[in-house]
Design goal:
Radius of gyration: 12 Å
Number of helices: 3
Strand order of the largest sheet: 1-2
Helix content: 40-55%
Structural class: alpha+beta
Amino acid sequence: MHATATRTARAVVGAVLDPEMPQVTLADLGIVRDVSEAADGAVTVTITPTYSGCPAMGTIRADIESALR
């Protein structure tokens, strides 16, 4: 992924709202650990929950996928 595309993808992911506290973004929470692109062009986003067993992780993943599309 080019540096500009990586920055754009990271910004898009960071702007996704927390489903439990919609006034807070994923960037605010600090859970976005990495954004990378594989050789086949697939974007991988690594996130870490704020606590283990966070029930919102499935929704957060779906929201990230939707935002990147």
